[in-house]
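OP here, attaching both records as promised.
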Amino acid sequence: MGVVEHPKVAISRIPPDPLQFQVILGSLLGDGQLVGLPRERRLRIAHRVERREYVMWKYDRLGPFPVAAPEPCGGDLVGFETASHPIFDDLARLFANRFARHDVIERLLRPLGLAVWLCDVGRLELRANAFLPAQRNLALAS
Protein backbone atom coordinates (compact mmCIF):
# COMPACT_ATOMS: atom_id res chain seq x y z
CA MET A 1 0.00 0.00 0.00
CA GLY A 2 1.36 3.44 -0.94
CA VAL A 3 1.97 6.34 1.39
CA VAL A 4 -0.65 9.08 1.25
CA GLU A 5 0.71 12.61 1.30
CA HIS A 6 -0.81 15.32 3.43
CA PRO A 7 -2.74 17.75 1.16
CA LYS A 8 -0.54 20.67 2.30
CA VAL A 9 2.51 18.79 1.01
CA ALA A 10 0.85 17.63 -2.20
CA ILE A 11 -0.30 21.15 -3.12
CA SER A 12 3.32 22.32 -3.20
CA ARG A 13 3.89 20.20 -6.29
CA ILE A 14 0.99 21.70 -8.25
CA PRO A 15 2.03 24.77 -10.24
CA PRO A 16 -0.47 27.64 -10.37
CA ASP A 17 -2.20 27.90 -13.74
CA PRO A 18 -1.77 31.16 -15.72
CA LEU A 19 -4.92 32.74 -14.24
CA GLN A 20 -3.90 31.84 -10.68
CA PHE A 21 -0.40 33.17 -11.28
CA GLN A 22 -1.79 36.52 -12.44
CA VAL A 23 -4.01 36.79 -9.35
CA ILE A 24 -0.94 36.02 -7.20
CA LEU A 25 1.31 38.48 -9.04
CA GLY A 26 -1.28 41.26 -9.11
CA SER A 27 -1.96 40.73 -5.40
CA LEU A 28 1.73 40.99 -4.56
CA LEU A 29 1.97 44.23 -6.51
CA GLY A 30 -1.07 45.44 -4.56
CA ASP A 31 -2.11 44.53 -1.03
CA GLY A 32 -0.99 40.88 -0.90
CA GLN A 33 1.79 39.91 1.46
CA LEU A 34 4.21 37.00 1.57
CA VAL A 35 4.48 35.56 5.09
CA GLY A 36 6.58 32.77 6.58
CA LEU A 37 10.16 31.62 6.32
CA PRO A 38 11.82 30.24 3.18
CA ARG A 39 10.30 26.92 2.07
CA GLU A 40 7.24 27.78 4.18
CA ARG A 41 6.16 31.02 2.48
CA ARG A 42 2.46 31.68 1.97
CA LEU A 43 0.44 34.45 0.39
CA ARG A 44 -1.82 36.45 2.71
CA ILE A 45 -4.76 38.26 1.11
CA ALA A 46 -6.72 40.75 3.23
CA HIS A 47 -9.01 43.62 2.32
CA ARG A 48 -11.57 45.77 4.10
CA VAL A 49 -14.71 43.87 5.05
CA GLU A 50 -16.81 45.89 2.57
CA ARG A 51 -14.64 44.31 -0.18
CA ARG A 52 -15.58 40.77 0.88
CA GLU A 53 -16.94 40.02 -2.62
CA TYR A 54 -13.51 40.86 -4.08
CA VAL A 55 -11.77 38.65 -1.48
CA MET A 56 -14.14 35.82 -2.44
CA TRP A 57 -13.32 36.41 -6.11
CA LYS A 58 -9.61 35.96 -5.37
CA TYR A 59 -10.31 32.96 -3.15
CA ASP A 60 -12.36 31.30 -5.91
CA ARG A 61 -9.70 32.00 -8.56
CA LEU A 62 -6.88 30.51 -6.48
CA GLY A 63 -8.57 27.10 -6.47
CA PRO A 64 -6.69 24.58 -4.32
CA PHE A 65 -4.14 27.01 -2.87
CA PRO A 66 -6.10 28.71 -0.02
CA VAL A 67 -6.00 26.70 3.22
CA ALA A 68 -9.35 27.99 4.51
CA ALA A 69 -12.25 30.16 3.40
CA PRO A 70 -11.98 33.92 3.93
CA GLU A 71 -12.77 35.06 7.45
CA PRO A 72 -12.48 38.20 9.57
CA CYS A 73 -8.82 38.81 10.34
CA GLY A 74 -8.58 41.71 12.71
CA GLY A 75 -10.15 45.13 12.71
CA ASP A 76 -12.27 45.68 9.64
CA LEU A 77 -10.42 43.16 7.42
CA VAL A 78 -11.46 39.89 5.84
CA GLY A 79 -8.96 37.55 4.24
CA PHE A 80 -7.26 34.19 3.85
CA GLU A 81 -3.84 32.59 3.44
CA THR A 82 -2.64 30.06 0.91
CA ALA A 83 -0.73 26.89 1.62
CA SER A 84 3.03 27.26 1.44
CA HIS A 85 4.38 26.79 -2.07
CA PRO A 86 7.83 26.99 -3.73
CA ILE A 87 6.60 29.69 -6.12
CA PHE A 88 6.37 32.08 -3.17
CA ASP A 89 10.10 31.67 -2.50
CA ASP A 90 10.77 32.55 -6.15
CA LEU A 91 8.49 35.58 -5.94
CA ALA A 92 10.02 36.65 -2.62
CA ARG A 93 13.41 36.89 -4.34
CA LEU A 94 11.85 38.87 -7.17
CA PHE A 95 10.17 41.31 -4.74
CA ALA A 96 13.04 41.26 -2.20
CA ASN A 97 13.52 45.01 -1.88
CA ARG A 98 12.61 48.34 -3.36
CA PHE A 99 15.01 47.63 -6.22
CA ALA A 100 12.85 44.71 -7.34
CA ARG A 101 13.46 43.30 -10.79
CA HIS A 102 10.91 45.50 -12.55
CA ASP A 103 12.00 44.21 -15.96
CA VAL A 104 11.14 40.63 -14.96
CA ILE A 105 7.88 41.66 -13.30
CA GLU A 106 6.85 43.56 -16.44
CA ARG A 107 7.52 40.48 -18.60
CA LEU A 108 5.42 38.28 -16.28
CA LEU A 109 2.49 40.67 -15.84
CA ARG A 110 -0.58 40.20 -18.07
CA PRO A 111 -3.74 42.35 -18.24
CA LEU A 112 -5.46 40.28 -15.54
CA GLY A 113 -2.52 40.74 -13.13
CA LEU A 114 -2.55 44.47 -13.85
CA ALA A 115 -6.31 44.56 -13.20
CA VAL A 116 -5.87 42.78 -9.85
CA TRP A 117 -3.11 45.24 -8.90
CA LEU A 118 -5.34 48.20 -9.81
CA CYS A 119 -8.25 46.67 -7.87
CA ASP A 120 -6.05 46.24 -4.81
CA VAL A 121 -5.08 49.91 -4.84
CA GLY A 122 -8.68 50.99 -5.44
CA ARG A 123 -8.42 52.21 -9.04
CA LEU A 124 -10.65 49.53 -10.55
CA GLU A 125 -13.30 47.05 -9.40
CA LEU A 126 -13.44 43.40 -10.53
CA ARG A 127 -16.52 41.26 -10.08
CA ALA A 128 -16.71 37.48 -10.28
CA ASN A 129 -19.10 37.56 -13.24
CA ALA A 130 -17.21 40.31 -15.10
CA PHE A 131 -15.26 38.01 -17.45
CA LEU A 132 -16.64 36.00 -20.34
CA PRO A 133 -14.51 33.01 -21.43
CA ALA A 134 -13.14 34.93 -24.45
CA GLN A 135 -12.25 37.90 -22.23
CA ARG A 136 -10.51 35.59 -19.74
CA ASN A 137 -8.37 34.17 -22.57
CA LEU A 138 -7.57 37.67 -23.82
CA ALA A 139 -6.58 38.79 -20.30
CA LEU A 140 -3.98 36.01 -20.17
CA ALA A 141 -2.55 36.59 -23.65
CA SER A 142 1.04 37.74 -23.98
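Record two, same layout:
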Amino acid sequence: MNYTLNQLPIFLKVTQKESVTKASGELYFSQPAVSIQLKKFH
Protein backbone atom coordinates (compact mmCIF):
# COMPACT_ATOMS: atom_id res chain seq x y z
CA MET A 1 0.00 0.00 0.00
CA ASN A 2 1.23 3.46 -0.85
CA TYR A 3 -0.25 5.99 1.50
CA THR A 4 0.90 8.75 3.81
CA LEU A 5 0.13 9.40 7.43
CA ASN A 6 -1.79 12.48 6.30
CA GLN A 7 -4.24 10.27 4.39
CA LEU A 8 -5.10 8.06 7.37
CA PRO A 9 -7.25 10.63 9.24
CA ILE A 10 -9.10 11.38 6.01
CA PHE A 11 -9.82 7.71 5.41
CA LEU A 12 -10.87 7.23 9.03
CA LYS A 13 -13.26 10.22 9.00
CA VAL A 14 -14.88 9.08 5.74
CA THR A 15 -15.46 5.60 7.15
CA GLN A 16 -16.88 7.03 10.38
CA LYS A 17 -19.25 9.42 8.61
CA GLU A 18 -19.95 7.03 5.71
CA SER A 19 -19.98 10.11 3.50
CA VAL A 20 -17.24 11.98 1.69
CA THR A 21 -19.26 15.20 1.85
CA LYS A 22 -19.82 15.03 5.61
CA ALA A 23 -16.22 14.05 6.25
CA SER A 24 -14.88 16.88 4.11
CA GLY A 25 -16.96 19.39 6.06
CA GLU A 26 -15.59 18.18 9.39
CA LEU A 27 -12.03 18.07 8.06
CA TYR A 28 -12.32 21.57 6.51
CA PHE A 29 -11.27 20.21 3.12
CA SER A 30 -13.18 20.48 -0.12
CA GLN A 31 -15.06 17.39 -1.23
CA PRO A 32 -12.89 16.99 -4.35
CA ALA A 33 -9.73 17.14 -2.23
CA VAL A 34 -11.00 14.34 0.01
CA SER A 35 -12.01 12.27 -3.01
CA ILE A 36 -8.57 12.68 -4.56
CA GLN A 37 -6.90 11.51 -1.35
CA LEU A 38 -9.19 8.48 -1.21
CA LYS A 39 -8.29 7.56 -4.78
CA LYS A 40 -4.59 7.79 -3.89
CA PHE A 41 -5.13 5.70 -0.76
CA HIS A 42 -5.41 2.31 -2.44
